[in-house]
């Protein structure tokens, strides 16, 4: 009676890291697909590809408005903060409110799950 329970517990514990990895991969893939539909028409994640918006490869941990050579709005240039997952979520939700005067058109992604997936995808590019 005790042994099967113990065996099951050990098995579950052993499979947890693998499950976490799978979950992360699913989130990253979903985030990539969402990025493609919501952000890719203006943003690239490939340094060789110019786009209307700044390159987002490596944006997590980067100071806002500092991707070299990109003509940012004065508002984003002066913003001074570093892009954290929380900042990215607030930006996706209401970029005009987060940095008044930005030239990025309002995207309005309010679903926290969608925000989370896109942040996971962007973080995976670091
Ligand atoms: C209609 C075009 C457009 C769409 C769609 C768009 N963006 Fe942007 N984005 C811009 C522009 C233009 C800027 C530069 C803003 C400025 O200089 O004020 C920008 C800036 C940014 C920045 C600041 C980067 C930095 O270097 O400081 C982030 C982060 C960002 N966008 C994320 C996103 C994400 C995530 C999505 C999709 C959910 C998205 N954007 C969708 C045009 C767009």
UniProtKB/TrEMBL annotation:
Signal peptide: 1-20
Location of the Cytochrome c domain: 26-126
InterPro entries given in the database record: Cyt_c-like_dom, Cyt_c-like_dom_sf, Cyt_c_1A/1B
Keywords, ordered alphabetically: Electron transport, Heme, Iron, Metal-binding, Signal, Transport
Alphabetized SUPFAM superfamilies for the sequence: Cytochrome c (SSF46626)
Protein name, entry field: Cytochrome C
Organism: Thioclava sediminum
């Amino acid at each position: 009676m005790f042994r099967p329970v113990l065996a099951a517990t050990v098995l579950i514990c052993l499979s947890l890291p693998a499950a976490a990895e799978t979950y992360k991969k699913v989130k990253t893939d979903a985030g990539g697909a969402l990025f493609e539909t919501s952000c890719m028409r203006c943003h690239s994640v490939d340094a060789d590809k110019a786009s209307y918006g700044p390159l987002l490869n490596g944006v997590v941990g980067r100071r806002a408005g500092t991707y070299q050579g990109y003509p940012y709005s004065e508002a984003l240039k002066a913003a001074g903060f570093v892009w954290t997952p929380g900042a990215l979520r607030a930006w996706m939700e209401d970029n005009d409110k987060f940095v008044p005067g930005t030239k990025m058109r309002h995207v309005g992604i309010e679903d926290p799950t969608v925000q989370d997936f896109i942040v996971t995808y962007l973080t995976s590019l670091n």
